[in-house]
Design goal:
The chain is an alpha+beta fold. It has a single domain, classed as 3-Layer(aba) Sandwich (Chemotaxis protein chec). The chain contains five helices and eight strands; from the N terminus they run ββαββααββαββα. The strands form two sheets. The protein has a six-stranded antiparallel sheet. A two-stranded antiparallel ribbon has the order 2-6. A hairpin with a 2-residue loop joins strand 7 and strand 8. The protein starts with a strand and ends in a 13-residue tail after the last helix.
Length: 145
């Protein structure tokens, strides 16, 4: 299971290494190419194994009617936000300029393990988020209540 917060810094070529603690939790054979997408309201990026990304897309497609225009727009935006990234032998990958700009990333990032995906935050934005959550660790109400 992907978990934990892992601060890192981009190198001069906009590369960042996938943290070892997160790599160990990913399936063998899924560390050469991954999918990078935009998170909610472009506040962070999301990194997925290709298999997990495909399962997520299939789940979304199954949820909506094919003739639902709003669903089609949502799916289009979702699919357009996806970029395949190649990891090198040191498990580094380039953060594309457009994705860096969307998430406000300059140099320092924080990788957050989120069960089956990895969030990548601008370090400054993550600190603001953490400060806003101080003392608010109460879980939300479960679905259906």
């Amino acid at each position: 299971m992907l978990q934990g917060a892992h601060p890192l810094t981009l190198d001069s070529k906009n590369r960042v290494v996938l943290p070892a603690a997160l790599r160990r939790e990913l399936p063998e054979g899924e560390l050469d190419k991954m999918e990078l997408t935009t998170g909610r309201r472009a506040q962070w990026l999301q990194l997925w194994t290709r298999r997990t990304w495909k399962a997520r897309v299939d789940e979304i497609y199954d949820k909506y009617d094919s003739d639902d225009e709003e669903a089609e727009n949502f799916i289009r935006d979702l699919m357009a936000s996806a970029d395949e990234v190649d990891l090198d032998k040191q498990y580094r990958f380039v953060l594309p300029d457009n994705k860096k700009k969307q998430a406000g990333i300059v140099k320092d990032v924080v990788f957050i393990g989120m069960r089956d995906k990895i969030e990548i935050w601008a370090a400054e934005a993550y600190e603001v988020y953490r400060a806003s959550r101080e003392g608010k660790q109460e879980p939300p109400k479960p679905r259906g209540l």
